[in-house]
């Protein structure tokens, strides 16, 4: 085969034309091949679909971390029913028989004043009453050694007792029939006192006070009474002062 170019022009011109034609052909083939590759790759990518979840995940609440899983707690086992504990038998209190000692629950104590109002200088009389409120006759010591009257201020300050300056060892065992009462009367001189009767004793001034009666551990309700300031005597009627060195009048 004769590949030598023939023509009126120089050989170099024909060789250049051939090289240019071959180069253009190669470029066209490369472009066509690139277009074909792009078309094939696009068609393949369009057929591939990304799988989507069937349901969207719930929106986490504020403060929740969706990546932290709460451990599943196993169901709690049902506790066995408690075993009943046998209770100890309640022993009833002994039945009070006639002639037995009176327990506190069968007695009531109260105090009374001979009048509701007094004047400083008076000597009030207090009555102590013990009553059998039970259903059976019984006995109890109500002597002066265990039965006492007290005077208190409204602030509950102890001011006087009949046993402070006149203590007694007297016993008086009394048999009470149901509803029966025993009364004892004491007189108060209006002076203050304390256990063992320390001296000097001070007079109690005007005010409102409470009388309380006590038998052993039994205490009565408070009974109020008033000590008033004495009225001023009219001019010329003032009593003469006691002589110097005269001893005070005896009493509680």
Keywords:
three-stranded antiparallel beta sheet, 11 strands, six-stranded mixed beta sheet, 252 residues, Immunoglobulin-like, alpha+beta
Q: Nutshell version of this structure?
A:
With 252 residues, the chain is an alpha+beta fold. The chain has one helix at 11-47, and strands at 107-113, 117-119, 125-132, 138-141, 147-153, 158-161, 173-176, 181-187, 207-215, 218-219, 223-228. The longest helix is centred in the N-terminal third of the chain and has 37 residues, at 11-47.
Q: How would the blueprint of this fold be written?
A:
Blueprint (H helix, E strand, L loop, with lengths): L10 H37 L59 E7 L3 E3 L5 E8 L5 E4 L5 E7 L4 E4 L11 E4 L4 E7 L19 E9 L2 E2 L3 E6 L24
Parallel strand pairs: 2-11
Antiparallel strand pairs: 1-3, 3-8, 4-7, 5-6, 5-9, 9-10, 9-11
């Amino acid at each position: 085969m004769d590949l030598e170019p023939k023509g009126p022009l120089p050989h170099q011109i024909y060789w250049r034309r051939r090289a240019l034609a071959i180069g253009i052909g190669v470029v066209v083939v490369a472009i066509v091949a690139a277009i074909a590759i792009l078309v094939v790759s696009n068609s393949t990518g369009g057929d591939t679909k990304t799988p989507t979840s069937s349901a969207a995940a719930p929106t986490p609440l504020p403060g929740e971390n969706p990546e932290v899983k709460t451990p599943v707690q196993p169901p709690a086992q049902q506790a066995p029913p408690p075993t009943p504990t046998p209770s100890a038998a309640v022993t009833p209190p002994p039945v009070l028989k006639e002639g037995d000692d009176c327990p506190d629950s069968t007695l009531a104590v109260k105090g009374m004043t001979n009048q509701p109002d007094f004047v400083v200088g008076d000597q009030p009389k207090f009555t102590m009453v013990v009553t059998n409120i039970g259903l059976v006759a019984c006995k109890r010591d109500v002597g002066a050694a265990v039965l006492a009257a007290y005077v208190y201020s409204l602030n509950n300050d102890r001011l006087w007792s009949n046993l402070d300056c006149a203590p007694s060892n007297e016993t008086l065992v009394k048999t009470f029939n149901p509803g029966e009462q025993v009364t004892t009367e004491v007189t108060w001189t209006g002076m203050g006192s304390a256990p063992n009767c320390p001296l000097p004793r001070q007079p109690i001034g005007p005010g409102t006070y409470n009388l309380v009666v006590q038998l052993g551990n039994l205490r009565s309700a408070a009974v109020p009474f008033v000590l008033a300031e004495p009225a001023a005597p009219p001019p010329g009627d003032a009593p003469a002062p006691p002589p110097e060195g005269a001893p005070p009048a005896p009493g509680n």
